[in-house]
Amino acid sequence: MNIFVLGPAGSGKSLLVKNFSSYLVSEGYEVRVVNLDPGVLNPGYKPDFDVRSWFTVENIMREKKLGPNGAILEAMDRLTKMKLPTFNDVDYVIFDTPGQLEPFLFRETGRTIVNAFPDRCCLFLGDLPALRGNLVSFYLYALTAYYALETDTVAVLNKVDLLSPCAVEEIRKILDDPVRMLARKPSNMEEEMNLNLLKVLRDFFSPKRVPLISAKTGFGFEELLTILYEIKCACGDLM
After folding, report:
1. Structurally, how many domains does the chain consist of?
2. d(C-alpha 113, C-alpha 107), whole Å
């Protein structure tokens, strides 16, 4: 199974790739790791394939005399044209995607790369402490990734270890009963727009359960693996 780890900068993608791949190995699975981020200095793990062996954002800046943003866009264009390894002989291949999510998600790069692989899914990672007051927007962003990449996408809330048990339980109750979240009265115009959009999107995309994890401690990895197994087998209830 090919797993693409997506998320905004600072959401913990590389740490999840590192520790979740180690967890899968400890469970007896054969795993390969692919780094698709040409801008990272040190991902914290040794990838089996590393795009930085071909180009980096820093080198493109020097070569093309571009600023950071222009170099990132050039890197995405190059990434789109690359032939990536398939590793068909292993159980899981985990792809660490670029730290700058938007160029990967909203240009052809993400869709071209992700759709080149069969038996795939995406994990859309969010920083739970930063998002706890704005879960609707996070859910919308995850649905956007699902729409843009045309691939099963699981919204995953990371950094649960930074919250108190009471705060985690409160968030879990909201996630377990999203209808209650939709039914509440909006407190401002932004929240009203978010809720109306979410209601429409739910008619097109069936909501999946949102696991709470810690990429640092490994909390929630067992549930995450169960969800991946259910997607892979096309069985089980993700609602």
Report:
1. 1
2. 11
